[in-house]
Amino acid sequence: RGYWDPLSAIAVRVLTTDPHEDIDAAFFERKVRQALESRHQLIDFKGLHYLIDAAHLLRARPLTVLMAGTGDRRDALAAQARHLGLEDRVRLLGKRDDVQALLAASDLFVCPSVWDEALGNVILEAMAWGLPIVTTPVFGIREQVREDVNGVFYAPGDVAALADALARLATDDALRARLAGNAVPALDALTDFDAMVEAYGRI
């Protein structure tokens, strides 16, 4: 139904879980139609290099990072992963048209932005698929993710804190399940897209 291009966020597979088949397709389409059409720049403010550094800190754990999309920074990110010996743990998948399959195969969703986001549309996709979110409380994201309800915040650019958040969710089954269970209700409680755009326009 859509694709991530350029690269804008990360789905993380840390465990083996069943796909979230209980998410109604019509609900998914209604909530994230705009998100599936979103485009983002793959540049430093997305914080993707910090996620690779965090994966390096967690290299002893069974964690795989999936990066979908393209962009000017893709080669640099690939080189960083190679330099850290993470070629088999950080997978740059290129342009994809199977967003739902990637989300269904993932256990966590990470959006490591270090600057404000106009609209964190990729997060809406992950919420609709029932994924816990690990992200930063920058403007545009903190309006969508609720700390300890459907996600975990860490300070932008803090690699150790990001690694700690990932490790916590990877090892705490109850926490991960609770955040996942709150994802769709949290999404449903958000202001609708048109009202959100109007509200942002008044800021």
Percent strand: 5-15%
- What is the count of helical runs? 8
* Strand order in the largest sheet: 3-2-1-4-5-6
Pattern of helices and strands:
EHHEHEHEHEEHHH
Number of extended strands: 6
Question: Structural class of the helix and strand makeup?
Answer: alpha/beta
Q: What kind of sheet is the major sheet?
A: 6 strands, mixed
Which stretches are poorly predicted, pLDDT < 50 over at least 5 residues?
Answer: 1-10, 13-43
Distance between the termini: 32 Å
Mean pLDDT: 78
What is the topology?
Elements: E1 10-13, H1 25-36, H2 48-57, E2 64-68, H3 74-83, E3 90-94, H4 99-104, E4 108-111, H5 121-128, E5 133-135, E6 151-153, H6 159-171, H7 173-189, H8 193-201
Parallel strand pairs: 2-3, 4-5, 5-6
Antiparallel strand pairs: 1-2, 1-4
Helix pairs in contact: 1-5, 2-6, 5-7
Main attributes?
six-stranded mixed sheet; alpha/beta; globular; 6 strands; 203 residues
Overview of this protein structure:
With 203 residues, the protein is α/β, with parallel strands linked by helices. Helix content is 42%, strand content 12%. It has helices at residues 25-36, 48-57, 74-83, 99-104, 121-128, 159-171, 173-189, 193-201, and strands at 10-13, 64-68, 90-94, 108-111, 133-135, 151-153. The protein has a 6-stranded mixed beta sheet, with helices on both faces. It is globular. The relative contact order is 0.18.
